[in-house]
Structure formats: C-alpha cells, structure tokens
Design brief:
This protein is mainly β and 372 residues long. Helices cover 5% and strands 38% of the residues. A five-stranded antiparallel sheet has the order 23-1-26-25-24, with no helix packed on it. The protein is globular and about 50 Å long. 49% of the residues are buried.
C-alpha cells in the first residue's frame, strides 16, 4: 500500500481536529464535501492506529458521533465497528474480529463474530449498541469493560415476542436503531414492516407502529396497530421520532408522547423532484438514512437518487445539499462544491459537531463530510 506523505497526514489530522470550529464559522449557504476515512476500495482492516485516510473502510453504512467526540462507523464488508479519533485522525476496531458469523457474547467485543452491522448508537451511559441486519439482532458493548452481549433478537428471522423479553423476540432484517431521552431503543424492523420499542431498563419489547402490511401510514392517525411500509431509517430529536420509509419513498414524524404519525415529505412515488418547494410534494427513491436536529432540520439520504437532501420542518421546504442526482452515480467532487459531487448508494448519516453531516458513501468505500 502506498504511504501518504507525512505532510498530507498532518493536514488531514488538523482538518479532523478542527471539524467543530470550521463547521461553526463557515457560511451556512455553501456546502463542500471531502473524504475523512477510506481509500475508495474494499479490503481487510489492517489493524489499529492506522490513519483513516490510508486504510480500507469496506462498505461503510452507519456513522455516529460517540463518547469523546469520536466518529463510529459500521463497516458492513469488514463485519466490524470502527472508531475514528478526531484528534489523531487514526482509526481502530472496537467491535468485531473481521470474521462473519455470530459468536463472542460475554467476551471482549473485538474478538466477536458479527454479520453485517448496519447502525451504531449510544445510550445515556455511553454503552454502544449496534444492529446486525443479517443476524437479525441487536448487540451491546459495555462502556466499562468492553464486553459484548446480545440484547434483542436471535439469528433466526421472523416475527414474534411483542410484550415479552426482547431477547426472545424475532426480527426480520432490522436496519436502523435510535435512542430517545429515556433510553428507550427504537428499531426499524424492515422485513416485518414495523417499528418496535425496547425498554432497556426492563428489557421488554413492543411494536409502536406497523402491522406487517405494506401500506403507507395515514397522516395524523395513531401509529400503533396501523400499517407502515418499509421503515428503513430512524432518528430521535426531543420527543419526535423521524422515519424514512424505503419502499414508501417518504418521510414521517411520530409523536412519541401522543403516538400519532404525521406526513412530512415525499408523495410515496419513486422519483427525484421538488427541490425548492414543499417537501410533501417532492419525490424520493429509496431513502435509507435520516438525521434530525432539535430545531427541525431533517437530513435524508436519498440513496437511489445519489443525493443528500434537507427538509426544513418549520417552512416545509426541501433542498438537495450534496450529490448531483440519479444519473451521476459514482465518485467525484472531493474538496469541492457538494452539489457537483458524485456519491454511490450512500446509507448512514450523522450530524457533525457544529454543523454539516457525515455520511457513509457506501459503494465508494468512504466516509465523507458534507460541511457548510
């Protein structure tokens, strides 16, 4: 592998360290994009303490800011969860041995076998949770000792377990997870067309939306015991659960206290339209990631349109902030205008400190920073 010159490494480290400052002071109307991890091709993880821009990050999906301001990345191709240190620019493995499978509960997380970790989140005690789509379960890494355990589901797909212990529940290809301010964990159970809630204090699980039927929700109705179509991505801000529907090509918000669900964006038809106008009239194509701010800015990974879009919940307007549309799939635009850049089936998204977002540019095998 060709070594990156020392001066380039130092510049990259400085850029990562200054992310919050730069994002907070840049003009919000201008967006640029740059890679912060990955070399653009798949491969095995070479070991800890490597520079993030010098090693493969194979099929990155989920990205999330965790303890100490570090960026956590789920590498689906490497069956690992990675940690990018913002001060050093170095990357390390914090869960998974790199071997596909299901083993290791009760032991050190870095020796465990994982099967396609998709998203990673942290509870209020800094314990790490991640969902393994192909193992149909959710696992936890203890913040104190680094041991791993399964907290919900088992390697057999199906549906069952509501109102009982989450450990005996069954999922079918769960993808996204999100915590609320009470440490309840929400799960996008895609294959079962449901959203489920796990009380992490009692360990019990219940469906809060969906019946298994593939139908769009009814705007303003109760979410429980009503259909929902392909819930793919979840984000909690305050007492609102924001939901991106992959097959439903739309965005919704669920009031966690009232239990009602409300249409936010997308007509339900696949397409790429609506920028600069009402979000409800816009079209999406397979949205697979979502992140929301407390003041109602909602960022959506419009995956099959190769675009990152932003909804202003207050005004109801939608715009594209990165990616040049469905005909521009590929890789281009490094350190330049984000709207002229190319991405390739991005998935996960996370709010960057001070502004902007991180995305898993999945088929480009890179994590990229879209910054104002």
């Amino acid at each position: 592998m060709t070594r990156t010159p020392r001066i380039v490494r130092l510049v990259c480290q400085l850029a990562v360290a200054l992310l919050p400052t730069l994002a907070a002071t840049a003009a919000p109307a201008e967006w640029t994009i740059e890679t912060i991890a990955g070399i653009g091709k798949p491969g095995a993880f070479p070991g800890n303490d490597s520079f993030a821009l010098e090693v493969p990050v194979d099929l990155p999906f989920g990205v999330e800011i965790g303890p100490g301001g570090a960026l956590y990345i789920t590498s689906v191709g490497q069956h690992r969860v990675l940690r990018l240190d913002p001060s050093s620019g170095k990357i390390s493995s914090v869960a998974g041995s790199g071997v596909k499978g299901y083993a290791g509960d009760g032991g050190v997380a870095t020796r465990a076998l994982l099967n396609e970790p998709y998203e990673v989140r942290f509870d209020s005690h800094q314990n790490m949770y991640f969902v393994e789509m192909q193992n149909h379960l959710i696992r936890r890494v203890d913040a104190a000792d680094g041991t791993i355990s399964t907290v919900a589901g088992n390697p057999r797909d199906g549906f069952g377990g509501d109102h009982g212990p989450a450990l005996t529940a069954q999922f079918r290809q769960p993808h996204s997870i999100a915590f609320d301010d009470r440490d309840n964990l929400y799960v996008a159970d895609i294959g079962n067309h449901r959203i489920r809630r796990i009380d992490t204090k009692t360990g019990r699980i219940v469906s809060i939306a969906g019946t298994g039927e593939k139908e769009l929700p009814q705007d303003g109705s109760k979410a429980k015991d009503r259909p929902i179509m392909g819930p793919r991505a979840l984000s909690v801000a305050g007492r609102t659960l924001w939901i991106a529907l992959r097959e439903g090509n739309s965005v919704w918000r669920l009031d966690l206290d009232a239990g009602t669900i409300h249409h936010v964006a997308g007509t339900g038809q696949a397409g790429y339209s609506g920028d600069g106008g009402p979000a409800k009239s816009a079209t999406f194509n397979g949205p697979k990631g979502i992140a929301a701010t407390p003041d109602g800015l909602v960022y959506v990974v419009d995956s099959e349109n190769q675009a990152i879009r932003r909804i202003d919940a207050a005004s109801g307007e939608i715009i594209t902030i990165a990616g040049s549309g469905p005909k521009s799939r590929g890789f281009a635009g490094e350190r330049s205008a984000a709207l002229s850049a190319k991405v390739d089936r991005p998935h996960g998204i996370s709010l960057a400190p001070g502004g902007g977002v991180y995305i898993g540019d999945t088929n480009n095998h890179r994590v990229r920073w879209i910054k104002p």
